[in-house]
Specification:
This protein is mainly alpha-helical. The protein has 4 helices and 3 strands.
Amino acid sequence: EKNTGQYRQTAGRGQLTANHGIVRTRDDQLRGTLIEELLCHGRTTLTPCLMARIEQRLEPFISRGLAVGSGLELSIPWRGVAYARVIASFLDRFREETTKVFSAAI
């Protein structure tokens, strides 16, 4: 609900304030889990398909020691922690590489 008065009334009744939702596909859920593992634990195991999709984008980080890729394992060493969100964004299908010219907050 965008109307603050209506939002307060709805929340005050103990009801959910959202009136629509988004269905997450199995792929969305998998990617979300992989992103969570990478950001919370510093490592994850990718699917072969996902690794193939992002390995070219990962290469600059791996070559500088900011990420480590071994088979399907992807990890972020201490020196790459500052880049963890950028690296994790490669797994987000809504942030896949585009020709878009405007920046987006990560």
